[in-house]
Write a structure and sequence with these properties.
By secondary structure, this protein is of the alpha+beta class. The chain has one domain: 3-Layer(aba) Sandwich (Chemotaxis protein chec), CATH 3.40.1550. The protein is about 45% helix and about 20% strand.
Length: about 160
């Protein structure tokens, strides 16, 4: 099972927010007792997931020798600021203030599936991020289309000694 799609949500009067039912189903299938959350490193959002996401982080950390600076930095950034949030019987969580501040969440949020994990965004920040992602994807697709044709021609022709841009 994967985290897919985008779901809007609102914080209630007590500051709780409902995790979308399809996301809760993925977490339950993954046998994770709640929701693993840490502030995303590169964007103002929250990275979330279950055991599969934690295994991915553990594998990343394990690539570096014990007591190495790289291992310490990764563990500190990804685990040192993380929490496992428990859902109540209605599937709601309470986001700590520091998480809401990082993501800029005040009253509404958007849950965005990323396959092995998902992110919680403030809706306007997500809209801006999505617009940028779409623009960059169109640019990348155009670059790949252009280089794909050149690459196919180059495979049968002489080497040119440099890439065209």
């Amino acid at each position: 099972m994967r985290f897919l799609s985008t779901y809007p949500a609102k914080l209630d009067g007590k500051g709780r927010i409902s995790v979308p039912a399809p996301f809760r189903a993925v977490l339950e299938a993954d046998l994770h007792p709640g929701l693993f959350v840490h502030p995303a490193l590169e964007v103002p959002a929250l990275d979330c997931g279950g055991n599969a996401f934690l295994r991915e982080i553990d594998a990343l950390i394990a690539r570096y020798p014990s007591h190495s600076e790289a291992r310490d930095l990764i563990a500190t950034a990804l685990l040192g600021r993380a929490e496992t949030l428990r859902t109540d019987p209605e599937g709601r969580i309470t986001l700590p203030e520091r998480f809401k501040a990082h993501a800029g969440i005040t009253g509404e949020a958007v849950f965005v599936g990323l396959g092995d994990r998902f992110r919680i965004w403030e809706p306007n920040r997500f809209s801006a991020h999505l617009a940028e992602a779409n623009a960059r994807l169109r640019q990348l697709r155009a670059e790949l289309s252009g280089s794909g044709a050149a690459g196919a021609r180059g495979a049968t022709g002489p080497a040119t000694g440099g890439g065209e841009r």
